[in-house]
Design goal:
- The protein is of the alpha/beta class and 426 residues long.
- The chain has 2 domains: 219 residues, Periplasmic binding protein-like II (D-Maltodextrin-Binding Protein, domain 2, 3-Layer(aba) Sandwich); 187 residues, D-Maltodextrin-Binding Protein, domain 2.
- It contains 18 helices and 12 strands.
- The strands form 3 sheets. Strands 1, 2, 3, 6, 10, 11 and 12 form a 7-stranded mixed beta sheet that branches. Strands 8-7-9 form a 3-stranded antiparallel beta sheet.
- Strand 4 and strand 5 form a beta hairpin.
- Helix 17 runs antiparallel to helix 18.
- The radius of gyration is 22 Å and the shape is globular.
- The two termini are 16 Å apart.
């Protein structure tokens, strides 16, 4: 479980290697003496009080400690302590804290970790207003239909393309359909200096997940309503054949360099003028000297729909939280549109609040506009503890398909069988 090769997706991606081989974990049956339940059925309008402990990961954890001064100004009787935890050690630290009954009140949770620790989370209070969040991010915070997480920031992929190179190939607009995308990639491949028409990883960690935009847009559901894996369906065949077509038709070489960061470098130098990317791709392009006038962003081209992968991070209150009331009030504050805009300015991660996207800070940025539109149509991977293992199987089997070692039929039958063998961890 992970949300991909872009920085803000670290929340989702960080869980992958750590979760392989790990089953779901929850709180111990025997709660320590004096522990209070984190289940708050409603939130009152009084200011937060008491001691509040928050864990946050990576760059967000480093920045959050000073940022929460705004919350303390509005809630002067609360004493908030933020602990920053590296993503690399976060999973083990959370697991240990749950087992020992020493959890903080609030934890930042990568969306693909929600199922792993679901038994240790308190449900979102009934009067917590969730109307400002779109369906995809909300669903990423649900386990077995219960809302356990509140979207803090979101991450998704949109299309990036070099407008100057596209123009040389006769394109003056973004592709609107999946068929047009493949045609554009084929056309730009003919331009001098272009080595691959589009950057799609044929192998490596998260390579299959990095193409889920094509699967979701083709109507794929990875599981059915009964919780069974559905990886050998007509929709899966159609989407797999679509991606495989880029390799079989020579638009992309199966020896494409999949080293992290190479996609940005090749996009800038024109070797690979089309890619999908998260919002930090914008800053990465700028950091490597890319010309912002030479490219544009657009929503994922449409198949049955235009649906991209969604990741990011939620906030959760722990079931054994000592101060759940203050915890939920803190999460309310962090997800208010005004706070979300300030947090974007601080951490450059995308707001989960739809209202925040109406602010000029975001609405006035033409490169970010595609994300605001794309976030209206996103889908998360299944909220099960074994997603990381199934995703890794997908990486390996899709590589075998792309390299001609398996047919699509053979590959999807193998993937379905492996997923059934792995199960859901529930």
């Amino acid at each position: 479980m992970k949300h991909t090769p872009w920085k803000t997706a670290v929340a989702a991606v960080a869980g992958t290697s750590l979760l392989l081989g790990l089953g779901a974990c929850g709180r111990s049956e025997d709660k320590p003496a004096g522990a209070s339940e984190g289940a708050v059925t409603s939130i009152d309008s009084e200011p937060a009080t008491g001691d509040l402990t928050v864990w946050a990961m990576g760059n967000e954890g480093d920045l959050l400690g000073d940022f929460v001064d705004g919350f303390k100004e509005e809630n002067p009787d609360v004493n908030i302590t933020v602990t920053a935890i590296p993503w690399a050690s976060a999973h083990d630290k959370i697991q240990t804290a749950i087992a020992a009954g020493t959890v903080p009140d609030v934890i930042q949770m990568g969306t693909t970790w929600m199922a792993d620790f679901a038994d240790a989370f308190a449900p979102v209070p009934e009067n917590f207003d969730l109307s400002d969040f779109s369906a995809g991010p909300l669903e990423a915070g649900q386990v077995d239909g219960e809302q356990l997480g509140v979207p803090w920031y979101v991450d998704s992929h949109v299309l990036y393309y070099r407008t100057d190179i596209a123009a040389q190939a006769g394109w003056d607009h973004a592709p609107e359909t999946l068929d047009e995308l493949r045609q554009m990639a084929e056309d730009v491949k003919q331009v001098d200096g272009v080595e691959n028409g589009m950057y799609i990883s044929p192998s490596g960690a998260d390579s299959w997940q990095g193409t889920l935009w094509a699967f979701f847009s083709s109507g794929v559901s990875l599981m059915d309503d009964e919780g069974n894996w559905t990886l050998d369906t007509p929709e899966m065949h159609e989407a797999t054949e679509y991606i495989d077509g880029f390799f079989k038709n020579g638009i992309i070489g199966t020896n494409l360099d999949v080293t992290p960061g190479v996609s940005i470098t090749q996009f800038i130098n024109g070797q690979t003028p089309i890619m999908t990317g998260g919002p930090t791709s914008i800053s990465q392009i700028a950091d490597q000297g890319g010309d912002s006038d030479s490219y544009a962003t657009a929503v994922i081209p449409k198949g049955e729909s235009s649906t991209s992968f969604v990741g990011g991070a939620d906030f959760v209150v722990m079931d054994e939280a000592a101060n759940p009331d203050a915890g939920w009030k803190f999460i309310q504050w962090m997800t208010e549109p005004e706070t979300q805009i300030e947090w974007y300015k601080t951490a450059t991660v995308l707001p989960s609040s739809q209202s925040a996207w109406e602010d000029e800070t975001l609405a006035g940025d033409e490169k970010l506009a595609a994300y605001g539109e794309q976030l209206k149509s996103t889908q998360a991977p299944p909220a099960v503890p074994t997603w990381a293992q199934v995703s890794a199987a997908g990486d390996r089997i899709m590589e075998q398909i792309y390299k001609g070692q398996l047919t699509v039929d053979e590959g999807l039958k193998n993937l379905q069988a492996e997923a059934e063998s792995i199960g859901t961890g529930e």
